Amino acid sequence: MSQQPVTIDDIYALLRTSQEESRISHEEYDRQFATSKAESDRRIQVLEGRIAKLEEYIVDNYSPSSFIDKNDTWDVWLANNHEILAVMCFPEISPDDIDDFIENLQKFKLAFPAYKNYQAYGAVAGIEINEGVDRYAYQKGLFVIRPSGDTVEIVNDQKFKPKTW
């Protein structure tokens, strides 16, 4: 068996085939990426909507007397004349989220001196609270709020002693 020598035309044909396969591969990747991005964007919108509904429900149903603010550090503040509750809402709560929130709570009265004489409490609200994380928040002295059907519930029991900041 003798092998035919490779010609320049053979090399060009191979390059054209390779370029066409690469173009098709890139188009397929771009199509899959666009589909994946659209699905991710949709899921983020659903999650943001669920968090907003959770925050809205808390404000509408658990405010002792007034809704104070919503900002980047605390999602909701609820206050009366001598107590304030800072609520942080999460799609899914982790122990690190709880630790970060407590660190922010420790700075609360420095950041807002108008509330220096108030008893400050903390609460975490989550759409999904993994097993053990609720116990961790409870042990750290935080109220734990989770969805329950069309509403939310505070899951802390009667023995719970909230920490004040």
Features:
Restrct_endonuc-II-like; DUF3782 domain-containing protein; 4 helices; 23% strand; alpha/beta; 6-stranded mixed sheet; 165 residues
Summarize it.
This is DUF3782 domain-containing protein. By secondary structure, this protein is of the alpha/beta class.
How does this structure look, described?
The chain has 165 residues and is an alpha/beta fold. It has a domain at 53-154: Trna Endonuclease, Chain: A, domain 1, CATH 3.40.1350. 47% of the residues lie in helices and 23% in strands. The protein is built from four helices and six strands, in the order H-E-E-E-H-H-E-H-E-E. It has a six-stranded mixed β-sheet, sandwiched between helices. The longest helix is centred in the first third of the chain and has 55 residues, at 8-62. The termini are far apart. The model is unreliable at 62-73 (pLDDT under 50). InterPro entries: Restrct_endonuc-II-like (IPR011335). It comes from Pseudanabaena cinerea FACHB-1277. This is DUF3782 domain-containing protein.
